[in-house]
Amino acid sequence: MLGNGKGGKDSKKNHRQQTNEPKRGFHLMKRIVIIFHSQTGKTARLAEALAEGAQSIEGVQVRIKRAQEATAEDLLWADGIALATPENFGYMSGMLKDFFDRTFYAVGESLGRKPYVLVISAGNDGTGAQKAVERILLGWRLRPVADVVISRGEPTEESLATCFEVGATLAAGCALGIF
Questions:
Q1: Do 118 and 83 form a contact (C-beta atoms < 8 A)?
Q2: Which class does domain 26-175 fall in?
Q3: Prediction pTM value
Q4: Domain ranges in the chain?
Q5: How far is CA 69 from the centre of its chain?
Q6: 61-87 pLDDT, tens per residue?
C-alpha cells in the first residue's frame, strides 16, 4: 500500500515521491532527439559524436534516429533537437527533406521555440544545405543554440570534438533550463 495506508491526499503525494512520477505536463529527465541521414558513414559519425556529447550530461535521455525512421512523435517527445545531414548537390539530403515533408504539418507550431543544433557533412561549403534547413526550422519556430557545424570532407578529430561539445551544450542547456 502506498502512502500512510489510509488513502487521502497523502497517499497521492507519497505515490509520486516513491515512483518519481513527474507532475502533469512535466518530465524530470530532459530529452534530446538526434535525427540524421548518412550514406557514406561520415554524417553518422558526426551524429554519434553529438549523441555522445548529449549523453555525457547527467539527467538527459538521448534518442538517435535515422531520418527515414524518425517521426513527428520524436519531435514532440524531445526537449531539444539535433539534426545532421550531408550536403547533397548544395542542399540537405533527400532523406532529411523527406523527414521534414512527413512531419512539418503534423507538428505545426506545437514545437514552440525548442532549441536545436545543426551539423552538416559537406563536400563543398555546406551553406546551401544550411540555408535550406534553417528556412524550414524557421517555420517551426525552433531556435538555434549553437553555431552550425560544417565538417568538410572526412570527419576530423576536431570536427568530432566540436560535435561532442555541441551535443553536450544542447543537453546541458535543456537540463539546466537555460533553453
A1: yes
A2: alpha beta
A3: 0.84
A4: 26-175
A5: 14
A6: 999 999 999 999 999 999 999 999 999
